[in-house]
Design brief:
Strand content: under 5%
Shape: globular
Order of helices and strands: HHHHHHHHHHHHH
Number of strands: 0
Oligomer: single chain
Largest sheet: none
Radius of gyration: 23 Å
């Protein structure tokens, strides 16, 4: 990465027909009134479908090559490792470089990796070593591509429409997952495994070809990467563009620390319903694979409904995220005590809805709270933290189930989540208003009080 920021680029002209309607819409689809956001959603749908085509066949491919389930898990860990180690550097790159160019190049590189894999599979030359190298390269590129694409979508809409953009993105993700999984079976059946990787490569190239034509809507935040200029007209250089600056902002920002705490405790002691509910359904509730399939379907439906509700938010806050997470935790406690599968199904739907709304609200806070020139680095820090949760959460929850059983894990985990959030709220409320005597300047009022506020 270059030691100095790239030269400033002129901002593209806003879409002339994107002025927000009077009164402010709360429609979950309001972000789609902007033409560029519609194109971006189509591109993301194509990309998600291609990604899920590849993911659907990837584990089977590893098993075919190695015959080892452990190797499958290793390949996933190798791909996730860069996010744990260098996400902050990827976020810094997103802040330093022009965002549209960064997103387009990263998508093209991911497409190149997919085409390379497809070629090796077609020629029967893919072995474990090359598979791990490709997985690691994909993980490195993703540390830049993830925050670049997330923030690029937000750059296209006004701030009040960001929750809608995130909610629409969640729906696009779910739709792409369903379509991609279905197409994978057809593609592999008729054209072979290599075709799924080639299709994914084409989906990346489609996204890269759409990005240059995207334009920010009226009222969108102007913060797309390198060359962002301050009010003085000078580019942001030096300390303002360092990784340390992003880390310092994160750890000194109470709102982001509170969001990290709520999300972390929820990720470790809840949310992993694919694990806890599978054991509950097949164990204490004496259900089979079909019963758990029904539970999974209800979870997916709840996630879609939650994304729609979350997209209606206009100004989400950490308090909203905490209240939703605590509510979901209490529902989890009740679900752990379910006497029958029917009762569990009634509880699973609101659990999934609350989780999805909380995710949308939290993502909106994370992506809009930092200053525009720091958002890539903040997302990079978040990527490293999130990787710790995703890698450490399932083993910790599995150990809890070993000690307390499926019901005990759900109940204990839910109480830990709700108790932690409640304790944090009480500590916040106990912070008293402090009086700070400001230095008196000519024209100032002496003894001016400053209120200390929490996140």
């Amino acid at each position: 990465m270059s030691s100095s920021p790239s030269p400033a680029l002129p901002a593209p002209a806003p879409e002339p027909a994107s002025a927000p309607p009077k009164g402010g819409s709360r429609s979950p689809w309001r972000s789609l009134r902007h033409r560029s956001m519609r194109w971006w959603s189509v591109a993301n749908f194509v990309s998600n479908a291609g990604t899920w085509m590849q993911l659907t066949v990837q584990n089977l491919l590893v098993l075919q090559i190695t015959g080892s389930a452990a190797a499958t898990g290793l390949s996933m860990s190798v791909q996730a490792a860069p996010a744990l180690l260098i996400s902050v550097l990827g976020g810094a790159a997103v802040d330093r470089w022009p965002r549209k160019l960064t997103a387009a190049v990263s998508q093209a590189l991911l497409g190149a990796v997919a085409f390379t894999t497809a070629t090796l599979v077609a020629l029967d030359r893919l072995d474990m070593t090359s598979l791990m190298v490709l997985a690691a390269v994909t993980g490195v590129i993703a540390t830049v591509d993830g925050p670049a694409c997330a923030l690029l979508g937000n750059d296209l809409v006004p701030v009040e429409d960001v929750p809608s953009a995130i909610g629409v993105g969640a729906l696009v993700h779910q739709a792409g997952r369903l379509v991609g999984a279905a197409l994978a079976g057809v593609t592999v059946g008729f054209l072979g495994t290599a075709a799924a990787y080639a299709a994914n490569g084409l989906s990346f190239l489609f996204v890269a070809s759409v990005i240059p034509f995207l334009r920010p809507a009226y009222g969108a935040v102007k913060g797309a990467g390198a060359g962002v200029r301050s009010a003085t007209g000078r580019g942001r250089e030096g300390a303002d563009m360092t990784v340390r600056q992003g880390l310092a902002f994160f750890v000194r920002r109470p709102r982001l620390l509170a969001l990290a705490g709520v999300t972390g405790v929820s990720a470790v002691f809840g949310r992993n319903y694919g694990l806890t509910l599978a054991v509950l359904v097949t164990g204490p509730l004496a259900g089979g694979a079909g019963a758990f399939g029904t539970v999974s379907t209800v979870l997916a439906v709840g996630g879609i409904l939650g994304a729609l509700l979350g997209a209606r938010l206009r100004r989400p806050s950490v308090r909203v995220v905490g209240l939703l997470a605590a509510s979901g935790a209490l529902l989890q406690v009740v679900a752990g005590l379910s006497p029958s599968l029917a009762v569990l199904l009634v509880l699973v739907l609101p659990m999934a809805v609350v989780e999805s709304v909380s995710d949308t609200a939290g993502t909106a806070v994370l992506q809009t709270d930092p200053p525009a020139h720091l958002r890539g680095r903040v997302l990079g820090v978040w990527g490293s933290i999130g990787t710790v949760w995703s890698l450490g959460g399932p083993p910790a929850l599995g150990l809890l189930m070993e000690l307390a059983g499926a019901r005990g894990a759900l109940v204990t985990g839910g109480l830990i989540i709700a108790g932690s959030i409640g304790a944090g709220y009480l500590l916040r409320e106990r912070r008293s208003t402090t009086t700070v005597v400001l230095r008196t300047e000519e024209g100032d009022v002496t003894g001016k009080a400053a209120l200390s506020t929490a996140a």
